[in-house]
Each structure stands twice: as C-alpha cells, then as structure tokens.
Hints:
The relative contact order is 0.03. The protein has helices spanning 2-18, 27-38, 40-50, 57-75, 81-93, 97-113, 117-129, 134-150, 154-168, 174-187, 192-206, 210-222, 227-242, 250-259, 263-274, 280-297, 302-429, 436-444, 450-464, 467-474, 480-491, 495-502, 506-520, 528-545. By secondary structure, it is mainly alpha-helical.
Amino acid sequence: MKNRYLYILILGALLTACSGHMEVSNPQLQEAESLLWEAPLRSDTLLNTLAHANLNRYENKRLELLKAHLDLKLRQQLQSEESMQALASWFASHQDAASAAEVYYIIGAYANWTGDNTTAMRQLKEAERLQPTGIIAGMTYYKMGRINEEEQLYEEAESYYSRAAEYITPTNLPLYQACVWRELGRMRSDSSKNACFEKALGYARQTNDSILCLEIQYAAAASSASADEKKESIRISRYLCDSMHMKRYAYDIVKYYLRSGQPDSARYYLDILAQDSTAKEWSNTQYTLWESQYLHALGRDRSAYLELLDLYNRTTARTEQQIRTQTYAIAQRYDNEAERAKNLQLELEKQHLYFSLAAIIALVLIAIIAAIIIWQKRHTRALLEKAQTRQKMALMREELELRRETLKRVIEQRVSMNKSLQEAILHQQKDAELPPWADEFIQLSTFTSPSQWNEFVEEFNACYEHVLSHLQEQYPDLKTVDIKVISLIILGIDNADICLLLGLAKNTVWNRRNRIKQAIGLDGNTNLDWWLINEYSIKRMELNDN
C-alpha cells in the first residue's frame, strides 16, 4: 500500500513538471505560424485546412489563437472578449507565457482599433507583464506607443516606440520594422530622427511598397524645419491624395494653399478632406477650422471666423486638459493594477514554491521510511540468521558432547573387558602370567599397536577438534607417548586404566605426566588433568568459535 502511494506521488510530480513543456508537432500548423506576419492570406488558407485535422489539445488552442490573430489582421474582427480571456488563462495555466501574451496583445489591439484605449492599455499591460518575446513584444510596445501618442503623451510614446524597436529590428519583417522606425523618427526632435527615417526607408524598400516609402518620406519632410523639405512634404501629400486617393493628406495641402494665398486650390482639397471616412471626427474638425480659414482668405465674414477660431482654441485647450487628467488617472490605475498583478504573481510563485518544498519533503520522508523498513527487515533477518546459527552450534555441541561420551564409554568398556578377562584367566589357571592368546587379545583391544592408535586418534580428533595436532604444533618437545597419555587424560581415564591401555607401568605413566608438565611449562602445583580438560580445551573451543 505504501509503495502504491509512493508511485502515485512520483507520477503526479512528473506530470506537474512536464505540463509546461508542450510543443506543436503538426508541420502545417508550424508553417501557418511562420506565415502569420509575412503572408497572412496563405496562413488563413492553411488554418482553414487544419480546422478538420486531427490535432491534440494544445495544438487546437494554438489554432484558435492563430485564427483570432488572423481575423484581427485581415478583417478587424474578434471573438468575444470572454472567450479570448479564457484562452489567455488556459495558456497561462499551462506555463505558456508567450501564447498568453499574444492573446492579450490581440485583445488590446482590437480595443485600440475600436477606440477603447483604456481597455487596450490594460490588456497590453498584461501582455507586457507576461514578458513576451520577439515580434509579439515589439507589436505590444508599438501599440502602447500609438495609444500614448493619441493621448498626446509624446515622451511615453517615444519610450514605447524605442522598446518596440529593440524587439522588431532583429526580426525578418521589414514592413513592421519600417513602421516602428517611422513612428520613432516622428517622435524625436534631435538629430537622431533623420537616422530613424533612413532606417525606416531602408526597411520599406525591402517590402517593394511604394506607398509606404512615400509615407516615410512625407513624415521625414514634414518634421523638418527646412522650407525645401516643407515643399517636398506638400508635393508628396498632393501625390498621395490625388493619385493614391489617401484623403487624409489633404489637410496639409489645404493649410499650405491657404497660407500661400491660393483659396481656390484650398477649396478643392477642402472638399476632399470632407470625404475622409477613415478618421471622420478628426476630418470634420479640421474641415470646420480650415473652412473658416478659407472664408477669411476670401475676405468674407471675418468676425465669424475670429469667433469660430476662439471657440475652437478654447475647445481644444479644454479637451487637451481633460485628456491629460484622464490619462493621469488611467496611468495611476494602470500602475495600481500592475502592482496588484505583480503581488498576485509573487503570491502564486510562493504557493508554487511551498508546494514544491512540501512535495520534496514528502518524498524525502517516504524515502526515509522506506529505508527504515528495509533496514528493519535486514536487521530482523540478520538476527534470525544469528539465532539459527547459534541453535545449530548448540546442536553441534550437543552432538559433539554425545560423541565424546560415547568414545569415553567405549574406552571404559575396553578397559573393563580387559580387566575382567585378565581376572577370569588368572583365577582359573592359578597362574601369574596370561597365556599367549589372552595377551594377544588384550593387545588388540588396547593402543599398543599403530593401527589401533591411528583409529583412536581419528575418532579423538573428530570429537576434540584436532587438539592433539595443535598441542604438537604449540609444544614440539612432546613425544608420541606423551600425546597418547594426554589424549586419555582429556577423556577422563585414570592412571591405572591408562597403564592398561598403553601397556605401561604406573611409574612410567607418572614420569610421563611430569615430563608433559615440563614440556608445556606448567609449575608443580598445577593439576595437569584440570589444565588439559578445562583450560586448554575451552580456549581451543573459543578460538574456533571466533
């Protein structure tokens, strides 16, 4: 059961770690993404084909994002803001900050196109918070610059255009590169603006878009203080207005002709300016102002012109003041929301860190518990094996003791049988000497012959773990007769029986005992029997156990 919980926890940790590493594997979807900025129409065709393809969940979300982006670029349409917000939340929850930032950029760009700059800036700030990279970052800052320019916050606009240039310049998208550097040149008033216009014109020529090149040249000429450059800007405006039907450029032409004293030409371009539908409110205001200028140029209704001009100036000043106040309030709200979002992000990161630490601690605890269980099992097994070994040793000792007792009883039976035989023969024959056949039988049952001694030594070594050979190695002065005496002493045989078994006299046995003590190094007070049976045998057994 514990192992099952451990596997589940490890699997959950792996899924959590791998959830932020999803990738697009469909080659057509990757091609559609690469064509989004360079050839939107081809990208749209590919996406329509992929709508019926077998895509995974992440690729379906990317397909939905690309469709929304293409709708914004090609048709200025957008899905509902709620569905786009849900899409951004989905990407953010799956740790795909770049895709989430792109969704917020799309919402902000659409809000800017519909005139809702407050919503646009809020969404673009979200895209900036997610730290997008590449073209998305560049276009996010480009849109923020346009919004600040519309609200006449030119310093803010220049700052955003500069940041946009950092991300868009390294890309291979000359159209957007040209637009960014054109706007950056329009915002600057120092000598660097000419370099900005040159860069913009160089990128525009790569697109083979002649109108874009003319617009950049017009912006460069209009921002110059030189009279020749001003004339060049009027020439470009007249071409764009007459040949390209870009009616908003009639504004500068009307102003030029009125100041040059050519009211008839100004009237013609005033009518064109009134037809500008791309910026209807701006066109109407400019038309009203320059209509009054036109009437004044004809010498008619000077008082009405002055009255209208004063009204226009007061209205413009009041509108600008309202815009500044609103912009300051909006900026404050943006800062507050950004700070709140930053704090929320920090809180989420803390919670993620705490969860990771808790998971690591849980894994460590599980590993420790598993190690303890394994150690406990091994320790129990070792104790069991040790107990079994001790039990086996006890059984072996019991068997050894039984074998020793058996050997001793056999020797004692031999001695008893020999004594009985000698007494019976001597009592029957009334003679002090045994007949040859009885003497031969007794010798066969004693250890006077080598064969009998070898059989006895083999059995004795099996019972006493080669004590005799160890004695001979340790005390080389011991003779064969000494070893025989020692073996019988260890078995507990008394001196009389030793004399019978070895065929020796009693004095000879006593002399051998004294010689053995001297060879071993025992003093006269030490009992040889006790030392051999207890001290030496026990030490040998302890040595073998170790």
